[in-house]
Design brief:
By secondary structure, the protein is of the alpha+beta class. The chain has three helices and eight strands; from the N terminus they run H-E-E-H-E-H-E-E-E-E-E. Strands 1, 2, 3, 4, 5, 6, 7 and 8 form an eight-stranded mixed β-sheet that branches. The longest helix is centred in the middle third of the chain and has 10 residues.
Amino acid sequence: LSQMIAVGNYNWVNGDITTDHFFVKGVGRQEREITLFHFNRDISSDDAIKEMESAGYRPATIEELLALGEVQPELQRQFPIIALGSVWVSSGGYRRVPGLWSYPDERRLFIYDFGSGWCRDYRFLAVCK
């Protein structure tokens, strides 16, 4: 995880994005067919996952999100990108998911609340099943 974050050259990383909270599976590079879902409306995480699955996709994991951030670093400057396939439950019982976003001069690796819902600006990384 730390290697993937380092090669992504993020300006800021949430301190809770650690191997204790987010597990990376596998080693090396693997080819995946990915897409960004844009629902263009407010949506819950559960409904976003259902729509991805009905289209033949699954929500991306943190390693797939970080791989996208490495190969397309400017994409997150256009809109926030969320990986609903990696969920960490905080000590307060909140489900958290990783996402890429930016400020004018920074690329950031954030943690978002799975249960709060998403406005129409968000994109969701998904992998073909």
